[in-house]
Structure formats: structure tokens, C-alpha cells
Input
Amino acid sequence: VSDSKFSRYHDPSAFPLNAVETVKRHAEWFFAGKKFDTSEAISLLVQEATRGGAGAVKIDTERGWVSITADVDWLEGDVAAFFAPLSYLAGGRNSSRVEVALTAFCDAVVTATSKGVFEVKSGEHVTELHELSTEGRTVAFLPPLEERPPSLEEAKTAQPQTTTLRLVQGEGAERISAAVASFLEKQQSA
Amino acid sequence: LPEDGCSNVLLYHGTDLSSATSLGAGAPLSSAAAASNHIDGESGFYLATEKADAEFFAVRRWIGSVIVYDLKGPALSALERAGAETRPIPGGCPPHFCGSEFFVPQTAFDVFNTLVAQGEIGVGL
Output
């Protein structure tokens, strides 16, 4: 090999890779759309919690924050997963916990157990969340602005963009038949 | 990986900074080091076909680095005859891997080290 880039001796210490900064360049490791996705993050956290033995997991959204609370501490007291893509036994070979992606992409991240609150990444409203307490573990994060879940009022006022068929269970066969007929009529006239 | 036995191929090894420094300085592959450093899967030497995947294996050890290996076609063939193989990276999800791995079992370490010494495998960053 004569190419000067491939001589025999090199010093990698000149090119260290920081874990969180590297995760920022590789959103595709965690998210199908290659950018932070709140729903996928929630799904991966719930998966981790249940694999960690949780029997009950609660998801809350409030003022832009998302919090996941489980009845067990799926990190077993170790917050290292917020700072590197660490594998875990229940996740299988070459797995990675998702917490580091929260640190990399979210505006703020806080976690709490019965032993107290740990502020992983500072942000607005973090002081209000310091009252978090749980017997298991809570992870709360403020997604990037464009990924924050809508408030209840925003969700109520959101209008459907397309005509959809909606069948409400319990309305009876006649109402459902009428709904289907009405939907088809609208589709044909569109 | 190319099957014509002629083309060079670049492969990437992600590991902790200490191991990367040692390999970059020309240290040969060693069964003892492979056994003590591996996190999961069978003990051996793993190369990724995509740099992004190697970076994952580097930073899951906190601060790491990626070493690039430039394998000449005959070197690739020699390693395959010694038991090395290209295969999908198992597990993950997350992370979602974008390439494959080239696995060099411990029984092929001597062949690998000889090829590096002969210049059939180049080491870079």
C-alpha cells in the first residue's frame, strides 16, 4: 500500500470521537426519518422500560414537555446512558439505549428516581420539573421546537386535512351503513 | 465486498481510544486483547463496511476512534480462506445499521497480522 494515507502508523488520539457529538451526526441510528422524532423516542423509552421489568408505564405531555414514568428504575440507578449509546442485556446484541439521543437532540432533559432529580441537560422550565418524584424512574424531555407535541387546545382546533371514513362503535348498523354511503358519495363528488 | 479478488476495499474498525492508539501504532491483533475488549457477540476482530457503523462501535465505549483498513483484493481473499466473512451486523434496532460487518475470527489473526506486515493491508485514519 503506497498511498500516504495508509502508511503503517497513525495516532487516533488526534481524532477522538465524543459520544454525544457523534450521536448528533447520526440521528439515523435511532430514528427512521433521520431526525429526532418524539413518537419514536417515546416508543423506544417504553420498550426499554418494559424490557427492564416495568409493569406500568405512563406517558404525559404538558407545556411541550414529554415525560415517561415507569414503576421500576429501568436504568438501575445508572445515568451513563444519557451520555453514550450504551448497550444493555435485555436489548440484545449491539443494542443501544435511547437516552443519549434525548441528550443529543432535545432542548432539555431531566430524570428522577426516589433518590432525587438529575438534570441531564438544562433548559426552560426545568426548575418546575424538579418536583418530579417516582418510586421507579421518570425521564422528562423537551423536544426540539418543531417536534414538540401540540397543546390540548391546539389539538382540539386542528382540522382534518382530508375526508376520512369514521365509524363510531355503538352507533348501530344503520348509522354505520349511512356513514359509509355518505363517505362514498363525498368521494365520488370530489 | 468485491468478489473479483483484485479491487481494494476500505473497512472501518471502531473502538476505544486506547485500543485505537495501539492498533494505529502498529500493534498486531491479539486474542487476549480481543477477549478483554469485546462487549457482546463472539470474540474476534470486527470491521464495518460503513464508517457510520464503526463510529457507533467507537462511541459506545464513551470516547473512541475509528481506524481505516485498506485491504488489497488478494488480502481479502486470503482472510476469507482463513475463515473471515462478510455478514449483516446482528442486533441493533436501535441502532439501525447501514452496512455489513467483516468478521475476522481469532484463528485468522496470524493471517491478518502477516498481511499488515507485508503491506497487503494498510492502516489509516
